[in-house]
User: What shape does this take?
Amino acid sequence: MARIEINHLTKNFGGLTALDEVDLSLEKGQIVGLLGPNGSGKTTLIKILNGLLTPTSGSAEINGMKPGVGTKKIVAYLPDRNALPDYMTSDQLIGLYKDFFEDFDSDKAGAMIDDLGIDRKQTLKKMSKGTKEKLQLCLVMARTAEVYLLDEPIGGVDPATRDYILRTIISNYNEDAVVVISTHLISDIESVLDDVVFIKNGRVVLHDKADHIREEKGESVDQLFREVFKC
Assistant: This one.
């Protein structure tokens, strides 16, 4: 059962506090929006959960394990920028993921890539930014992971591509998993969210069900976000 447990998590970079005493508990079977403006701490939190950064104090655990070698087997991570080798083709990248991840479904990845009309023999270097982002998402979502950490999966792509990316996430994630989607583009993603976490200046200022916000507050997540984060 996928579970993320974060307690008193703080991360400092010199004199800058990126995360400040964050407490958060996320359960399986949810798509969670990690929502906040740029510089609010979203990417720092995702990198800690993926084992790329270590906390200054406090703890983060996935299924009772600290992020590291053990959690990489069950966590699928989409970084906020392309992290794949430019000289490789889609077919070569499918082979790479198959070698690295036991839960990777190469047939599913190939089907998604073909559905997008991506040339399997074309190198990443020759692809557009949007095509690279879609390819990277296909590779991540072709894993049967327990946790998906998606950092800005719809940033910098056109609206039609955003729709495809959201459909890909909904139709391909493991339903026993927890999916964390970091973004500041709330209106584009609100319809797929079960839970929302607002993060501001490194602090969690709200954690609630998306339906609860709409029913109890009588407004959309996007409207509430604009109120909480207005300048």
Summary: The CA atoms of residues 209 and 215 lie 10 Å apart.
